[in-house]
Fold this sequence. Notes:
It is built from eight helices and no strands. The chain is mostly helical and 171 residues long.
Amino acid sequence: WDDFALILDIDSYRGFSWENIQWMFTTRYMGPYQPLAWLTWALDYKLWGLNPVGSHLGNILWHAASAVVLYFLTLRLIQYLAMKGGREEGTLWLKCAATLATLFWAVHPLRVESVAWASERRDVLCAFFFLMSSLMYIRWSCLKVRKTKRLYWFSVIYFWLSLLSKATSLM
């Protein structure tokens, strides 16, 4: 329902001029603060114009990337639980469980709705960056020696990007 109001009826996001970028980072047009969604729509507009294929393709690509990240996140968590339970970490059942969980998530109606709804770019962006933040944090926390804080800071940066996409990450 918001596609017309957020994508077609407004032209403040169309371009990368200083005024456009300033608007994207200061507006709360139609409610949420979502500067990264505006930036990706500006890129879509630059590449595709107002052709809806661009917005939908962008959502599909962000969702597919999220599913890949979720697979590795789920695999890492299941491996951790398996090692705690005394099982080997590289067994086939672990990969099957991670694949099944990822497929379940990827085709769930709540996720698919955000992909099909062009103006819900904020949701697919938020999911991707939140999953990346979680993966980086878990990779960092599982290290035996935490000499490097690089993964930790990547986790913080990805979380910050998820907040710039949609505030749902706080919940």
